[in-house]
Structures are given as C-alpha cells and as structure tokens.
Specification:
312 residues; 12 strands; rod-shaped; 25% strand; 3 domains; 44% helix
Length: 312
C-alpha cells in the first residue's frame, strides 16, 4: 500500500470553538427555547450540543516519533506524521504507530502468572527470556546463535494493513532469516579467503541485514542494523570442537616451525660453503642437516652429546 500523508487542521482553534459551543451556544439555545416555549429552538440546542460533543472526538495529539493512521469505515484515508495537536474528522479511526527505532534480540518470550494474595486475582507478568537459537551450520555442526536487530517503521500503511501484527512479524522473520543465514556459512574456516561466522562477523552481519530488508519490506519496516550477538558451538559438541581447534592450532604452528627450520638449515649450509669453513662429505652434510632439524623442530631443549676419545 502507498502511504498518503495527511496535513490536518490545527487543534487549538477547533477546541476553543467547540468548548464555546458546548458551554455557551448549546445551553443558550435550550434556555431561550424553554423560556419562550419554542420546542424547535430547544431541539436545535440539543442537536447543537450533541453535534459539538461528537466533533470533539476529532481532536488528537501526535507525539514526537509517532504517527496516526486514519481509517474511515474500513477505508484508509492517510497518515498524520506531523507532531502536535490536531483536529480531523471525528469518525476517523486513529491508529497509533510508533516511528521510533526499536531493538530486539532473537529468542523466546514467556509469560509468568501469579496469584495476588489479597484479592485472589491472577496477575500476569510478561517476562522476556532470550536464548540463542540452535541451528546447524554449513558443515552440519550444531551451533547456538543469536542476533540483535535495530528496526523502525517507514510505511505505516504497510505496517498496519499488509501484515497482522508487524512487531510479531519482525521477530518471526528475524529468527527465520538468522536460521537461513547460519546454514550458509561455516562456523569457522581454515582458509583466509572463505567467509565464516566467527571469522567474518562484519560481512555476515551485513548479509543478515540485507536478508532482513527483503523479508520485512512488505511490512513497511526498514532494518537499521543487524549483528550477531552470540555465537558458540552447542554444548554437546563444544568440548570435541575445542580439542579440534587446539589440534588445528598445533598443526599450523608446527608447519611454521618446519618452514623456518628448513630455511635456517639452507642458510647454514650456504654460509659454510661460501666461507669455506669446512669441507663436508655428502654423508656429513646429511648428518648435519638431521641434527639441525632435530634441534630446531624439537619442542624440548636439546641436550648436546660431546664425543670423548679414549686415551692411547
């Protein structure tokens, strides 16, 4: 639906005019008609009074960052966005829509009830409990993920008439978009050029925002920001995945050590040949390379062994 902005009359002039009609003109007509015995004048005063009271229902207040959608007998007539005190057709149904930016975190909402000990009535306390969503990533690993979404209404007509409840619609579509997003990415990736949930939070959050924009456009809602607020492996595999990450880190460190050790051995042999410090046979060079690699790649301090010749 296309939003039609309405610019209504100011409310202060109609307010004073209607107060004068209700308090002065209407009673004056009734009193004058009763004094002269003129029934028509009395009826005119009553009709004037009732009409003035009905017209007062057209007064309304629009607060900052708020709008009022005007509906006349089921027909949408427009939206008042200008803040202040206004007067419109009293038969309009004035539906309030907040234009403030709002935030929600994916999760579940529960309602707790308790009994008032004095009156015995059941009192409902709405309590919102947020917990991460459990979903499988691209590798099929169960993970727990949550996101924070900042959104606001930009089209009041779509928000009120295209969906049943736009606030509930935003929350449901937010969780659905997050589930779809999580299944498209690895939790973590060993390749630097591959996006992952843990390694590329900015790009993943931007993808989530675009996904939500497409889903919420029909409800007249724009997404200002969407970002992942919680990300972890599910408890049943968290310990195993931690061991896997530790093993991957150890392997990566060993690869770096081996690459550095080979480079140092090559440099040592080149310096020996360049300066002619010693002439080594192929067997001696092989033995030297073996000893250097053991010393450089070992995770423990090397223990030198000194050859001791027997006395003659």
């Amino acid at each position: 639906m296309v939003e039609n902005e309405v610019r209504p009359f100011g409310g202060w002039g109609p307010l004073f005019a209607l107060l004068a009609s209700v308090l002065v003109v209407g009673p004056a007509l009734v009193i004058a008609g009763a004094a002269d015995g003129h029934a028509g004048l009395v009826m005119l005063g009553i009709v004037w009074e009732v009409t003035s009271l009905i017209l007062m229902f057209g007064l309304m207040v629009v607060n900052p960052n708020e709008a009022r959608a005007l509906v006349l007998f089921g027909d949408y007539r427009g939206t008042v966005r200008r803040e202040g005190f206004h007067w419109v057709n009293p038969f309009y149904s004035k539906r309030r829509v907040s234009l403030r930016a709002r935030t929600f975190e994916t999760g579940s909402t529960t309602t707790a009830t308790e009994k008032d000990p004095t009156t015995g009535k059941i009192i409902q306390h709405a309590s919102r409990s947020r917990q991460p969503i459990k979903v499988n990533d691209r590798d099929g690993n169960p993970i727990e993920i949550a996101a924070v979404v900042v959104w606001k209404v930009v089209n009041t007509a779509d928000a009120l008439f295209e969906v049943d409840d736009y606030e509930s619609f935003v929350q449901i579509q937010g969780e659905a978009a997050l589930r779809a997003l999580a299944s498209q990415y690895h939790y973590d990736s060993e390749r630097d050029d591959e996006l992952s949930l843990r390694g590329s939070p900015a790009k993943v959050s931007e993808h989530l925002r675009h996904e939500l924009e497409e889903r919420l456009h029909k409800a007249g809602v724009t997404v200002i920001e969407a970002r992942i607020s919680s990300l972890a492996y599910a408890p049943e595999i968290a310990a195993a995945m931690l061991q896997r990450q530790q093993a991957s880190a150890v392997i990566a460190a060993r690869q770096k050590i081996v690459e550095g050790a080979v480079g140092m051995v090559e440099m040592a042999l080149a310096k020996l040949d360049e300066r002619s410090i010693a002439s080594l046979t192929p067997e001696q060079r092989s033995h030297l390379v073996s000893n250097l690699l053991i010393v450089l790649c070992s995770d423990r301090a090397s223990q030198p062994v000194l050859p001791v010749g027997s006395g003659g």
